[in-house]
Design a protein that fits this description.
Helix content: 40-55%
Largest sheet: 9 strands, mixed
CATH architecture of the largest domain: 3-Layer(aba) Sandwich
Number of domains: 3
Shape: globular
Strand order of the largest sheet: 2-3-1-4-5-6-7-8-9
Number of strands: 15
Strand content: 15-25%
Radius of gyration: 27 Å
Length: 519
């Protein structure tokens, strides 16, 4: 009985601890491997400690009131096994990726935990169940401790990769690197440049949303070839200095700043810090480099008025160096005319919305300044495709789906509603709202709700607490309660949205934002 209870508890603990620490590592990965962000996440999600806390209390009581150690261990083993079933990995939108860093972290966790288990077995078998429960309770902190242990090694590995990428870029002397950053629109402009620059050049772009230093480094080390003429590098940021860090790696010759707005204010704190960070790209350009600025963005205009007077500006007003007018927008696409100096060229695209035209004008401006005649770009503009999950149009039976689920910000959400407004018939919005807007989050979500009330026939909100401000905005905008539904998760929300009776009309569904698993 002694050895059986001992083995059962050991196995049950091992399974439960493995499940717990996998969840901890998953959140850590989603939180960009930043301990401060992880602690903030833990503060907002204290229930993650609930299972360990309950087990600790029960095992403490068992240790005090049950005299037989084998019986304590047997009861604890059953409890640990039940908790393991409860804690088993769930299906995630973005599952834990077992990168080399995560594998190294796992090895350190195994070593530290095995040392702890050995000490408990050797020195404190009487309190074995209690100590194992405490270990489960502290799994998050054990994982963070192991990350701290690995930190010197991780820094050394990252430094090697960064230096290797720098060397590869330096050895490719004829490569022209174009940095693209902005609070929103940077990924779209990057993909547009990847298509339009093909009119003359062999182009490498950072894939998907590889816009962090190590994402950029991975792109260079795995994909850069001697045949590439241009490298379009997307640069993301959540803190002051992030853009400079990427610029120090890739040394961009030209730069595009697509927008400056209230995004990631939880980490940036102020809009001034956002402006300063985005213009780190401008400050990194050489004297013969070109800076392209969205002239329709009021924050860009205000910040660049004095210091960046020689920048190439693009937009919709004729005060810009490159501008578009004669916009004609329908559910089938957009046509417009771009002017530069004495030249005017008409374009058509399947993309929808005023903001996409601005992005296209910016990409056209870059191409023209790099020696591609504007007229030569016409077929390339026609063939551009929407970026996945960024106002991506899809047809599902009798329903038109507008997938804008990648992320959301005030300007992007407003633009998405404007696109939804282009469709006749029944218009439905599905959204969990916007995040990472700091003190402005409630204000911006409420304004989003007011706008949605003016555009939509129905609104499905995902998550009661997260969307309270949007609900207030919908109510203020005059939307009846019977046209608002609050769902627990995206699956329920989608089912409700598809089930709405369009009364014989066409139905258009806008999916605006989809929060990651750590929200």
């Amino acid at each position: 009985m002694e050895s059986l209870s001992f083995m059962l508890l050991l196995v049950a603990f091992a399974v439960l601890f493995a499940f717990s620490v996998m969840h901890d590592m998953h959140m850590f990965q989603l939180n960009s491997y930043k301990p401060k962000v992880q602690f903030k996440w833990l503060k907002n999600n204290p229930k993650t400690l609930l299972v360990g806390a309950v087990l600790t209390v029960i095992c403490a009581l068992l240790t005090v009131f049950v005299k037989r150690s084998d019986l304590v261990r047997l009861i604890a083993a059953v409890l640990f096994a039940a908790a393991a079933v409860f804690q088993r990995p769930k299906k995630a939108k973005k599952p834990l990726v077992f990168t080399k860093r995560i594998v190294r972290l796992c090895v350190t966790i195994v070593i530290v935990t095995d040392a702890f288990v050995f000490a408990v077995v050797l020195l404190a078998q009487k309190y074995m169940a209690l100590l194992f429960a405490v270990c489960v309770l502290l799994s998050m902190f054990i994982m963070l401790l192991c990350n701290l242990i690995n930190r010197p090694l991780e820094k050394a590995i990252n430094r090697y990769y960064i230096n290797d990428a720098k060397k590869m870029l330096k050895d490719h002397s004829r490569l022209v690197t174009i940095g693209v950053t902005g609070s929103y629109g940077k990924t779209s402009v990057k993909f547009l440049l990847g298509t339009l620059l093909e009119a003359k050049y062999n182009v490498l772009i950072t894939p998907e949303s590889y816009n962090t230093p190590l994402g950029v480094v991975k792109t260079v080390r795995s994909s850069l070839r001697a045949t590439h003429d241009v490298f379009v590098c997307e640069m993301g940021a959540k803190n002051v200095g992030d853009i400079k860090e990427i610029c120090d790696i890739v040394s961009p010759k030209h730069g595009v700043i697509t927008s400056v707005g209230p995004q990631h204010l939880e980490s940036f704190k102020t809009l001034d810090n956002v402006k300063k960070t985005k213009f780190e790209l401008a400050d990194a350009l050489p004297s013969n480099g070109l800076l392209f600025l969205n002239g329709e963005d009021e924050n860009i205009r205000a910040y660049s008025a004095d210091k960046y007077q020689n920048a190439v500006r693009y937009g919709l007003s004729d005060t810009n160096d490159y501008y578009a007018d004669s916009l004609s927008v329908s559910s089938g696409g957009t046509s417009f005319t771009v002017h530069h100096g004495q030249e005017s060229v008409s374009f058509s695209t399947s993309l929808l919305g005023r903001h996409n035209v601005i992005n296209l004008v910016g990409a056209i401006a870059v191409c023209c300044e790099l020696g591609i005649p504007m007229k030569q770009l016409q077929p390339y503009v026609r063939k551009v495709q929407g970026v996945e999950h960024r106002l991506q149009l899809m047809r599902k039976g009798a329903v038109t789906v507008i997938d804008d689920a990648y992320n959301s910000n005030p300007a992007g959400a407003s633009a998405a509603l404007d696109v939804l407004g282009l469709f006749d018939g029944c218009r439905v919005l599905v959204t969990p709202g916007m995040i990472e807007l700091g003190d402005k989050q409630d204000e911006e979500n409420k304004a989003f709700g007011v706008h949605a009330a003016a555009v939509c026939d129905y609104v499905v909100l995902v998550g009661k607490n997260q969307t309270r401000s949007i609900y207030d905005g919908l109510w203020e905008g005059g939307m009846p309660d019977d046209r608002i539904y609050v769902a627990d998760d995206l699956t329920e929300a989608a089912r409700v949205a598809y089930d709405y009776d369009a009364k014989g009309q066409e139905k258009a569904l806008l999916f605006e934002n989809d929060l990651p698993d750590n929200y």
